[in-house]
Amino acid sequence: MNFLDGSLIPENQDKLVITAAPYGPEWIPSDFPSDIAVTMEEQIQKAVDCYNAGASVLHLHVRELDGKGSKRLSKFNELIAGVRKAVPDMVIQVGGSISFAPESDGAAAKWLSDDTRHMLAELDPKPDQVTVTVNTTQMNIFEHMDTGDYAGTSLADPATHEAYREMIVPSGPGWVEEHIRRLSAAGIQSAFQFYNINSFETVERMLRRGVYKGPLVMNWVAISGGMDAPNIYNMANFLRAIPDGSMLTVESSMRNVLPINLMGMALGQHVRCGIEDNLWTQDRKAKMSTVQQIEQLVRIAREIGREVADGKEARRICKIGVFYDTVEETLAKNGFAPNPKAGHQGYLRKAA
Known about the structure:
Its cofactor is Zn(2+). It is built from 11 helices and 10 strands. By secondary structure, it is α/β, with parallel strands linked by helices. An 8-stranded parallel β-barrel has the order 1-2-3-4-7-8-9-10, surrounded by 7 helices. The chain is globular, with a radius of gyration of 19 Å. It starts with 17 loop residues before the first strand and ends in an 18-residue tail after the last helix.
């Protein structure tokens, strides 16, 4: 991205799109009973509350009545239908992991099989987005936490802790290319989860080969443990790499969430919050609900003069439902240099 004079002035930036991640599949209800929804009615109401607070994108996971993360696509269909009816303008983004939470005490925290994840393209009603991980990597969610971040919660249980510490994100090239094709064929936008420059470059190559022909909508996931660490150097390096026509949401975990969001907001990017990412106030004296986290970001956005997007505006900014016909159109719309030809090496050096 290019940061010219005026790039930090709010009227030269898009309205702020806030993604809410309120379902927190890594937690169990006793970890935050006042904010973890269990019944279907409660889970739908959680989406409504987040939307009313100022979030325009819902990162969606589902729970069973026993409080555990659901892996049943029928439950996803039920929640999507309920949210669509209750808040029709909200962008529904299904978490592509479905639920990585262990199914029983001491079980491994792992993502579901390739075939099961492909079935997200068959959800009915269909979501607006499904998150797509790129390149197999370690996902040790504890690496930059300290013990106070999870003390007294289910993640402090030794077996559960070890399961999450050893978690791997499986996203090999064959799976990810097929997954993108199926989502695109269903009219579902791929919301790319980028862990570093390498995963971004993999998707750029897929765009240049025509595997994906749509808007580049992505999260920079700075949670360490195999992914970028949450600091300004990594963020600036990532921003320098991505094109001006793309849409980026910044994401981190625990008490890194707020400072990373503040940096992203100032730089014209978009933000994500919720108990899936963080449970705490910055002084860690109290737990902070997803709605409270959204309200905090809305207050700060108003202080810096940046307006917050509603659902319809978020759909426009994310280009929901937009796909392109050719590789050339995809590259141009996303702000990339065209594929090189003889005598034409991109925007900086063109044939006379």
